[in-house]
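Troubleshooting log. The previous run stalled partway through. Resubmitting the same two chains, unchanged.
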Amino acid sequence: EPEVTQTPSHQVTQMGQEVILRCVPISNHLYFYWYRQILGQKVEFLVSFYNNEISEKSEIFDDQFSVERPDGSNFTLKIRSTKLEDSAMYFCASSESPETQYFGPGTRLLVL
Amino acid sequence: AQSVTQPDIHITVSEGASLELRCNYSYGATPYLFWYVQSPGQGLQLLLKYFSGDTLVQGIKGFEAEFKRSQSSFNLRKPSVHWSDAAEYFCAVGARDYKLSFGAGTTVTVRA
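Second attempt completed without errors. Output:
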């Protein structure tokens, strides 16, 4: 069964550093999403992406964040200058039609 | 804006017993409703979804959920729990913009 994959599974970085989280969506999917879950809190929507552009973003998704689909298979989330409060589990999701999203295993990001 | 409440933070159930997890949503129109499960170290796996039609939906792993518009609820049930059902369960609601809003989750512990 096809699935969404994410790399790395864990990342530790210093505050102020840039990180790139990578996702490989399911191959025939057209809609892509990033969510995050701060420890002990709800899973929160960050951004959705369709047709090579952002279709929706939350207030969390400020100028420090960007997304890109650099080739036909990868979907990345970049955080330009990480803050302590960016420590969270980041989930990528994809969908063939926008209603039903399939999630990857997540990347646990720790900012020190 | 849509929101989801899962009133039970933690439920303990005996193996073989029935399970019901509660979910209440707030949304002005007909919502898209989902249940996801997260096992330790794993991503969010879609259990089932409701868009329209029959209010009792069947999912994977023997789970079912019932949509009750009058109660704004979408409770998840399983008649006989297996030890492998120990996990965290998330109810989510999607709106026309397709971004999902998640509940805080219910952790299920299964005792032998």
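Takeaways: The longest strand of chain B covers residues 87-94. Chain B touches chain A through 23 residues (CB under 8 Å).
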